What does this fold into?
Amino acid sequence: MNRAQISLLAHAGHPIAAPLDDDSVRLLLDRVLPREDARVLDLGCGGAEWLLRALAAHPRLRAEGVDVSGDALARAREAAHALGVQDRLVLHHEDAAGFTAAHAFDVVLSVGATHAFGGLRATLEAARRHLAPGGRLLIGDGFWERAPSPEAVEMLGDLGGLPAVMDTVTAEGWTPVRGHISSRGELDAYEWAWTGSLAAWALDHPADPGSAEALAVADTHREEWLRVYRDCFGFVCLVLRPTSG
It folds into this structure.
């Protein structure tokens, strides 16, 4: 099984691919959308769950999503048809870091996808290229809540603490106008859903050639979460506006 297939199965019970509950997602969308007829872009959209929720709540909204996973985009198209929002959603099957568009966007989203750009700073730079004057960015990324072990750094990268994240944001010319730090409950619920959904699929499909691998991935992920990074990893979402220009 490839990474995209694993991710689709693991997110079956938690369509938002980040440690945020439904209320947090709704509040962040309410804060980042400047008007009802906004044009929204999600860089690294996966199954486009953020866009689907925004489109369902705002009938005049138009949205585009970019992702390298054809399977995730196919799921997004099915969901868009089920919600009746397919005419207002355009999906691009390509690398978000290299994506270009013929027009700018009022809102750019990139939550849990900084790896696609090579880090937070590069993600901020890419988002700015797509943002219309007066636009807003919603970005979500991990940080160390407390000093990580060398094993945690090797696994998740040298994220830095929350002050370091904020220093990067402001140094790149952005001003935070709203923020949300995922609670322990949100972080744990996401991990339980990720490992549980994948394990449940494996147990429900014992004859599938990928069953044993899926169960092993779920077991390994659960051990890494509980023993390596649960007590030091945090996640923050920020609504940002360009400081000038």
